[in-house]
Write a structure and sequence with these properties.
191 residues; alpha/beta; 5-stranded parallel β-sheet; two-stranded antiparallel ribbon; 6 helices; 9 strands; 31% helix; disordered N terminus; disordered C terminus
């Protein structure tokens, strides 16, 4: 099967019959898609500037969102899977893009992403837990959710958080399973 190059990301198309039974089972459980914003839905660049409104300077921040990601999220929502964004960095640009796509859950605040996601899970109601979540993140602050989610994904250019962590590589899930076995105790998120 050919790979498809989407700019900074390369996606490999795999027929369903090539996915492992374990992976298929985890994907069938998905009831919520959550992700970080900067570096996952954007090119990891934030442009800061100033605009003038009625003669007074007003801070201006812009981000570049990938339009294909937006379409994918809309299709996911249309299939009945709620979508949420969990960012440790509040941003008007993120708020506006979330409004544009009618994102179901938007959390923008410093603090624990795990705690924020547990709040989202509580709002969804009984029977929805970490094993029902797909989480995509790209940096150290995403490790807690990545380790807890039923299915974790990282962009190809994700930050390696540990020397042996294959972040952004096809063997991430194998590494994650090994880490799950080694770390029986709950993970303490980095601050």
């Amino acid at each position: 099967w050919p790979s498809v190059d989407f700019g900074r990301r390369v996606c490999q198309r795999l027929p369903m019959r090539q996915l492992s039974p374990d992976l298929l089972a985890r994907l069938r459980r998905v009831r919520l898609f959550l992700c970080d914003v900067d570096g996952v839905l954007t090119n990891a660049t934030v442009t800061m500037g100033v605009q003038f409104c009625e003669g007074r300077p007003v801070p201006l921040e812009t981000k570049v969102f990938n339009i294909r990601d937006g379409l994918g999220l809309m299709l996911l929502k249309r299939s009945g899977i709620p979508v949420g964004w969990v960012s440790a960095r509040p941003s008007d640009a993120t708020t506006e893009r979330a409004r544009d796509l009618s994102i179901d859950y938007v959390h923008q605040a410093s603090g624990s992403k795990v705690t924020a996601i547990e709040g989202i899970l509580a709002r969804m109601g009984e029977g929805v837990g970490w094993e029902d979540v797909v989480y995509m993140g790209d940096d150290v602050v995403d490790l807690g959710p990545l380790r807890r989610a039923g299915f974790a994904a990282v962009p190809a250019d994700a930050v390696d958080s540990q020397p042996d962590a294959p972040a952004g590589r096809k063997d991430w899930h194998r590494w994650r399973k090994k880490q799950d076995r080694l770390n029986a105790a709950p993970f303490n998120e980095p601050d």
